[in-house]
Every structure is written in structure tokens, then in C-alpha cells.
UniProtKB/TrEMBL annotation:
Domain named CBM2: residues: 31-140
The protein's name: Glucanase
Record's compositionally biased regions (Low complexity): 158-167
UniProt family annotation: Belongs to the glycosyl hydrolase family 6.
Organism of origin: Actinoplanes oblitus
Keyword Cell membrane included in the entry's annotation: no
Enzyme active site: 259
Keywords: Carbohydrate metabolism, Cellulose degradation, Disulfide bond, Glycosidase, Hydrolase, Polysaccharide degradation, Signal
A Pfam family annotated for this UniProt entry: Glyco_hydro_6
Signal peptide positions (record): 1-34
Taxonomy, superkingdom: Bacteria
Compositionally biased tracts (Pro residues): 143-157
Statement: the UniProt record of this protein carries the keyword Disulfide bond: yes
Length: 591
């Protein structure tokens, strides 16, 4: 949940004019060879001087166990600058991609996926031949019956199955376009009990909130000492059936090296724990979500908060970037982990995946917007099929206002465009609704299905109460104008932890606006974002100074005060003062 504002200004954003997206998968077929068989799908997203390449190799021959490499030669001057999920080296036009240490074997029909960024000039022609361990990938196994022969079926969809572990039971049912439409949401009884125990809490406690599967133990259920709830996944799904709920919302949140740019929600898995993420976390969740008992419940997964945007804006060399984000970018743990989760969970007929896409105050600048969309596509492709993604969520656990009627970025004051103000800081967007709709358009333009929908977390972006402006300022100074007119009352849009003055936002609601599947409460109101001082715990959670009200800030929040409430417990734990404040400042107000 680290809504980190990265101050990438439009003035320096020329690098991000990702004009196009010509993604196309081509199966490369060339000469045959004797020992093995393979198929390569090669897809690019390119702009005028660079591109992102995505390579999926399927081993059609005997199992490979001692490591693999994929080689090719670029026909032009393409130069790889960075790779992931494989070690990629280039010598002249020749490229070798070697398996990552965590993925040395490739069983029959198993698929490996990796990607890279590259520069080029002129025409970006695709390589004509790819080889797996020296054998050209023709799409068939030489000397075996052709793919149409029933005795040797090719993989039904060449890139649809990156996983080698057993598949989960699936419901063949057709997914609906918007799983929130005409359906009652599951009310988490553990959250409801805490809300009901607060004076006035029963006014909101019947709203659906998400269940966070924030560690492996949360699947089976934890003991009562855990910071947020002890019911396991089956307990929640059974309770949802008992409630007659139409949908349930779960947060998949346990990537290796989690929360690489902040500390408050560091998790239990180390940076190299991708195998554990797959086998001890995603596989068991997929097995439960795929249980036919739940087939009439729409199971909605909110996938891995903040992770992919962190790889775009918070690697070292960027303001406030971290070595852990470098590690997670280099080892592919986030992209591969999310790809795996989308693949396993998306295969289930009644399951819907929404990937986290940060918020406007983080990726609203041109320099972050396109690259974030691109990495979303990489992760979706790593799952084998972009249609494993139902949509995206913005503003998870964040405070960005839904709409800013008085500070739209086109406004000029005293002859100056307000984008130059300190608050907006050249961002292209000033509110979540406009941003989410524009990001959706961008995602569709680069290759996502045109029926994807967005979610916006409105659990604490209401900003009601007496501090809420009711009209535009009359000041002719852009900074005064913006500060007096904005709905979002934070000290800085990069602040994210237990914000003073925040209120509950829109109540959960299906299909509230064009392109938006729902307003949702993913971060349960009343649950802390992080402790305001160091509190030892056994959940891997660190102390992030952005949660300390005395902190004077860092590059990512313009060296501003943190604006955090005092006396907060660790992230996820109940924080009564925060809950009371959210109710008091709700907008729309509570009746
Ligand atoms: C925490 C999780 C918690 C979630 C919802 C996150 O910040 O890391 O442990 O479940 O918030 O409150």
C-alpha cells in the first residue's frame, strides 16, 4: 500500500511517449532438428526508439532439467538494455537468454516466459529464428506426427500454460463482464465485529470490505493474535455462501520481497522466495477458489498492491529508489509471481482478477503512465493470456480524491496553468476517476481486452467535514488557488500513511461511471497503514517513517511532513482513532 508519489515531471518526460503498441505474437518456424522441439512466441510493444520484448518458449520435446537457454540474432541494431526472468546477454546481434536460477527445468509442454527492454532505430524486425538449447524452435517436434495428428496434440494454446503444477478444478462457466453488477457483496464478519464495537460503527459495518490474504498462514486461518482476523479462506468462502453473497473480494498480497519501496508492509517472503510463493501460497489459494462448492460465488482477487508500479518508479537512481526494488526487478519475482497468480486463478470459471495499478499521485505523470501500463501487460502476458485479467484497481488504501471539481489540470489562474502549482507538480491528472478512466483507455490501447473494467478504492478518500471546499478559490496565485480549492486535504499527494483529516469515500457501488466496474472498500476502514513508531512483530512488518507524525519527509513527498495520525498500531491492526475520524469526515456524509 505504498502510494509513493514519484516526482517525474512532465518537463523531463520526453522519454515516455509510448506511442504505440504493436503487440503481436508470432510463432517462429524455421529449420527442423533431430533431438527436441520447441515453440517461441515473440511479442513486442514498441515506440519510436525502443521496445519491450516478451518471449515465451514452450518445450515440446523431452523434459529439460539441467538448465536451458534461448538464443536468437536480431536482424537490425536492436540493443537490449535490461532483461527480466532470464539472464540476458548480447554480443553484436546475437542474444542468449539463460534460465533464472529458480527455473532451471522445463518439462514437456512447459512454458517459460521472460522479457527485456531494448533500443533500436529504423525498423524493428523480429528475429527469424529462436533456438532452445541450440535446437531451432519450429513449433513441432521433428520426426513426430504433425500437430494436427490426434496422436500428438500440440499444446492447445501455445502460450496459455506457463505452469507445470497440477491444474485446479475449473468451472467451465462463462465469466460475466462485471462481477459486481447485480450482486450483493460479502461482509467480512471479523471486520464487521470491530466496526460494530465502535460508537456509530453500525452505520457502515454492513458494507463489503476485502479479506487480505497477507501471509501463507492467512489461507488456513491464523490464531487470534494476528493483526487482522483469524478466519481462513474456506471460512470466509463458507460464510459468503451462508450470507447468500454474490461476490467476495480477496487481496492476494504476499509477493517475494513485498513492498520493496517502503517498510510498513514488508512481508514474510524474501526476495528469492518465488518458488514458495507459487507452491505454498498461490497453489493452495487456487485449489480452494477452484472448489466446485463455490462455483456460484464470484470470487474477486485484488492482485498484489503496489508491486509492479514500484518496479517502474522506485528502483535505484530514481528519487527514493531502493535496492530491494532493483532486486525484484532483476530477478523477475514480481512479474513472474503475478503472472503465475493470474494464470492459476484466472483459469477458474467464477474467479476474477484485478491487478493493482497504484493511483494518480504516483503514476499520473507521462513518464510513469506508459511504462506502468507496459509492465502490467508484461505480467499479464507472463500468465499466458491477457484475458486472465478482468481489470485493474487504483487508489488501494490511498487517499486521492475521487473527483476534484475545481482543480482540473486545464484550469488557468492569473494566466498560468495550475499544473505548475506545487501540489499538482505537472501531473496530468488531479483525481482518481479521471485517471482511472484514462489508464483504462491506455491499457486497452496496448493490448488488454476492451472489456476490462476499473475499480477505485474509496474506503478513505472522502475528505468531507468542515475542511472540504465548496467552491473554487478566487485567488489569482496558482498555489493559493490550488490549496484553497482542492478536495484532497493532505499536506502532499505523496503522503500515504494514516492520513489526518481523511474521511470515508463513496460507499461500495457497482458500475458507478463509464469504464468503472465498482467503487470498492478494499482497505478496510479502521485498519492501520503502518505503526507510527517501531513495534516488534512476527509478521515481517517494518517501521516506515511516513507513518510517524513527526517525520519531515523525503524526496518522494517533497520533503513535507507525513500528515500521519499518532499512536498507530502495525499495518492491518485495528486503529480506533482512525476509524472514528473516517466516519466523522465521511463524504458523502453518514446519516
Ligand atoms: C497490511 C496487511 C493488512 C492490510 C489490510 C496492509 O497494509 O500489510 O497485513 O491485512 O493492510 O489492513
Amino acid at each position: 500500500m505504498r502510494p509513493i508519489s514519484t516526482r517525474a515531471r512532465a518537463l523531463t518526460a520526453a522519454a515516455a511517449v509510448s506511442a504505440l503498441a504493436g503487440a503481436g505474437a508470432v510463432a517462429i518456424a524455421t529449420d527442423a532438428s533431430a533431438a527436441a522441439g520447441c515453440r517461441v512466441d515473440y511479442a513486442v510493444n514498441q515506440w519510436s526508439t525502443g521496445f519491450t520484448g516478451n518471449v515465451t518458449v514452450t518445450n515440446l520435446g523431452d523434459p529439460i532439467s539441467g538448465g536451458w537457454n534461448v538464443t536468437w540474432a536480431f536482424p537490425g541494431n536492436q540493443t537490449i538494455t535490461q532483461g527480466w526472468s532470464a539472464t540476458i546477454t548480447q554480443s553484436g546481434q546475437n542474444v542468449t537468454a539463460t534460465n533464472p536460477s529458480w527455473s532451471a527445468s522445463l518439462g514437456t509442454n512447459a512454458t517459460a516466459n521472460f522479457g527485456f527492454n531494448a533500443n533500436y532505430s529504423g525498423t524493428n524486425t523480429a528475429p527469424s529464428t529462436f533456438k532452445l538449447n541450440g535446437v531451432a524452435c519450429t513449433g513441432t517436434v521433428p520426426n513426430s506426427p504433425p500437430p494436427s495428428s490426434p496422436s500428438s496434440p500440440p499444446p492447445s494454446s501455445p502460450s496459455s500454460s506457463p505452469s507445470t503444477s497440477p491444474s485446479v478444478p475449473t468451472d467451465p462457466g462463462t465469466k460475466v463482464d462485471n462481477p459486481y453488477a447485480n450482486a450483493k457483496g460479502y461482509v467480512n464478519p471479523e471486520w464487521k465485529a470491530k466496526a460494530d464495537a465502535e460508537p456509530g460503527g453500525s452505520r457502515v459495518s454492513n458494507n463489503p470490505t476485502a479479506v487480505w490474504l497477507d501471509r501463507i498462514a492467512a489461507i488456513a486461518g491464523t490464531d487470534s493474535s494476528s493483526s487482522n482476523g483469524s478466519m481462513g479462506l474456506r471460512d470466509h468462502l463458507d460464510a459468503a455462501l451462508a450470507q447468500g453473497a454474490g461476490y467476495i473480494q480477496l487481496v492476494i498480497y504476499n509477493l517475494p520481497g513485498r513492498d520493496c519501496a517502503a517498510l510498513a508492509s514488508n512481508g514474510e517472503l524474501g526476495p528469492d522466495d518465488l518458488p514458495r510463493y507459487k507452491s505454498e501460497y498461490i497453489d493452495p489459494i487456487a485449489a480452494i477458489e477452484g472448489d466446485a462448492k463455490y462455483k456460484n460465488l464470484r470470487i474477486i482477487n485484488i492482485v498484489e498492491i503496489d508491486s509492479l508500479p514500484n518496479l517502474v518508479t522506485n528502483t535505484s537512481g530514481q528519487a527514493g529508489g531502493t535496492a530491494m526494488c532493483d532486486t525484484m526487478k532483476a530477478n523477475g519475482g514480481y512479474v513472474q509471481g503475478i503472472g503465475y497468480a493470474l494464470n492459476k486463478l484466472g483459469a477458474i470459471g467464477n474467479v476474477y482478477n484485478y491487478v493493482d495499478a497504484a493511483h494518480h499521485g504516483w503514476i499520473g505523470w507521462d513518464s510513469n503512465f506508459g511504462p506502468t501500463a507496459d509492465i502490467m501487460l508484461q505480467a499479464a502476458k507472463a500468465s499466458g493470456n491477457v484475458n486472465n485479467v478482468t481489470g485493474f484497481i487504483t487508489n488501494t488504501a490511498n487517499y486521492s480524491a475521487l473527483q476534484e471539481p475545481y482543480i482540473q489540470p486545464t484550469v488557468t489562474v492569473g494566466g498560468q496553468n495550475i499544473r505548475q502549482s506545487k501540489w499538482i507538480d505537472w501531473n496530468q491528472y488531479t483525481d482518481e476517476l479521471t485517471f482511472a478512466q484514462a489508464f483504462r483507455t491506455k491499457l486497452v490501447s496496448i493490448g488488454f481486452n476492451s472489456n476490462i473494467g476499473m475499480l477505485i478504492d474509496t474506503s478513505r478518500n472522502g475528505w468531507g467535514g468542515s475542511a472540504r471546499p465548496t467552491k473554487a478559490s478566487t485567488s489569482t496565485d496558482i498555489n493559493t488557488y490550488v490549496n484553497e480549492s482542492r478536495i484532497d486535504r493532505r499536506i502532499h499527494a505523496g503522503n500515504w500513511c494514516n492520513q489526518a483529516g481523511a474521511g470515508l469515500g463513496e460507499r461500495p457501488k457497482a458500475a458507478p461511471a463509464s469504464g468503472i466496474d465498482a467503487y470498492v472498500w478494499v482497505k478496510p476502514p479502521g485498519e492501520s497503514d503502518g505503526s507510527s513508531s517501531l513495534i516488534p512483530n512476527d509478521e515481517g512488518k517494518g517501521f516506515d517513517r511516513m507513518c510517524d507524525p513527526t517525520y519531515t519527509g523525503n524526496a518522494r513527498n517533497g520533503n513535507s511532513m507525513s500528515g500521519a495520525l499518532p499512536n498507530a498500531p502495525i499495518s492491518g491492526a485495528w486503529f480506533s482513532a482512525q476509524f472514528q475520524q473516517l466516519m466523522a469526515n465521511a463524504y458523502p456524509p453518514l446519516s
